[in-house]
Amino acid sequence: MVSRVSFAAISILLFACGEGTSDGRCAEQAAAGLERGRALLDESRDGEHYRVDGFDAAMAELRGAAEQGSRDAQSLYGRTLFGSLFSHSGPAPSERAAYVSALVALRRAGRAGDEEARAFLPGWSAASPSTSSPPLDALPSAWLDEAIAEAEMPVRCPASRL
């Protein structure tokens, strides 16, 4: 009896988290969003920079795929957004949400094993992240704390570890 109850509880939990979907729609949506985001990002590239219109569309696609649990999308979204924000100036209060979003994506990707995310911000994906080295030392500690806490929250579709 205990084994049936445990199995039933696990089945319900997996289904609630998206793992139990038989058609894999969530993983397919994340994969499609990642590919659309990559294509739009490539199309928006203008030398070393991005054109704003294409960049915004690309980042929206990548963010959606990242929020669905795509490790590759988390890494690409986080690296691209953080790099574009940090390269033009230091952090401004109006950019808090964007910085936190980029840091959450990078932390999730790094903790899921993405080497590019880990290399981009060394130490950020550790259990106790180092925030005293550049560039993280330039960010308000409240932003970093918020990103760490949010990164530990479950993603919408954990089945799509692409």
Largest sheet: 2 strands, antiparallel
What is the first-to-last residue Cα distance? 36 Å
Radius of gyration, in Å, reads: 17 Å
**How would you write the strand order of the largest sheet?**
1-2
The chain-level structural class is mainly alpha
DSSP helix fraction = 55-70%
> What is the total number of structural domains?
1
Quote the beta fraction. Answer: under 5%
Structure write-up:
This protein is mainly alpha-helical. It has one domain (25-151). It has helices spanning 2-16, 25-44, 52-67, 71-88, 96-111, 115-120, 141-151, and strands spanning 45-46, 49-50. A two-stranded antiparallel ribbon has the order 1-2. α3 (52-67) packs across α4 (71-88). The protein is globular, with a radius of gyration of 17 Å. The chain starts with a helix and ends in an 11-residue tail after the last helix.
